[in-house]
Design goal:
By secondary structure, this protein is an all-alpha fold. The protein has 12 helices and no strands.
């Protein structure tokens, strides 16, 4: 068997393993999925009219739904990959990785299984949260089929980038609790981005924090694609952030994984 065929076979096996773990222990996934759903309902039905009026659109809840959904979708990905960090940490600390090192399997298949499994779960979570958004009134009437395809591609790219970062966080964490805490910025950063209010509506000293981070250009790009509006330079910035985080997370995870066990 060629090295490529071996890598594909072993990576597929590890992918099935991670998906089975997610199916057998759904509580973590459900808890992480409930957070964006609750935030969506909270901001739409409790704060929607006030937030829309504060943004100059009048007390129009439907307009605020259109604004807030893209940020909630990216927050969903951030929450999902926290579970990946926990799963990787468990593998690293419970001895299964040491067992895998002694087996005749492709060395990178363990990480590939975690990453692909996480991306699949992220996409499924986004679809579920998106369905909730549509049920409460979100509509994307101005987006073309090409823009919908681009939006899906962006979501997948963000999921890949954040997953590699989460894998690295899980590998350097001494236990599952530490992994969950280390991955917390992936949930917090969207809260201080343009997910809920425009950057120019924030205090002047806070605007650079919201603007110069990976989630804001990704949210603005997704918002433009879903609503059929201009995205400016945000598209290129979002892609650059995703590629940089993917490369960083990949080499970080690979370096830690290839270290000799202590």
């Amino acid at each position: 068997m060629s090295s490529l065929a071996l890598a594909v076979r072993d990576s597929s096996t590890m992918l099935r393993r991670n998906l089975l773990h997610a199916r057998r222990y759904p509580s973590l996934t459900l808890n992480l999925l409930l957070t964006p759903v609750i935030l969506l309902l909270l901001f739409v039905y409790v704060f929607g009219d006030v937030m829309s009026a504060g943004m100059g659109g009048g007390a129009d809840r439907s307009a605020y739904i259109a604004y807030v959904v893209p940020g909630i979708l990216l927050m969903t990905i951030g929450g999902t990959v926290v579970g990946t960090a926990v799963s990787v940490s468990n593998d690293m600390t419970e001895g299964i990785i040491a067992r895998f090192r002694t087996m005749a399997i492709h060395r990178g298949s363990v990480l590939i299984g975690h990453v692909v499994g996480s991306v699949v779960q992220s996409v499924m979570s986004v679809v579920l949260v998106g369905a909730v958004a549509v049920a409460i009134g979100f509509r994307s009437t101005n987006a073309t089929a090409l823009e919908w395809l681009a939006a899906f591609g962006l979501l997948a790219l963000v999921a890949l980038a954040l997953t590699w970062i989460a894998v690295g966080m899980g590998m350097v964490s001494p236990n599952a609790e530490a992994a969950s805490n280390n991955a917390l910025p992936l949930i917090v950063l969207p809260l201080i981005s343009s997910a809920f209010v425009p950057v120019d509506a924030m205090p002047g000293w806070f605007q650079p924090i919201a603007e110069y981070q990976p989630f804001t250009p990704a949210i603005e790009t997704l918002r433009g694609l879903l609503l059929g509006t201009e995205i400016g330079n945000n598209g290129w910035l979002a892609i650059a952030w995703c590629l940089a985080l993917t490369v960083l997370g990949y080499y970080w995870s690979k370096t830690v994984f290839n270290r000799d066990p202590k």
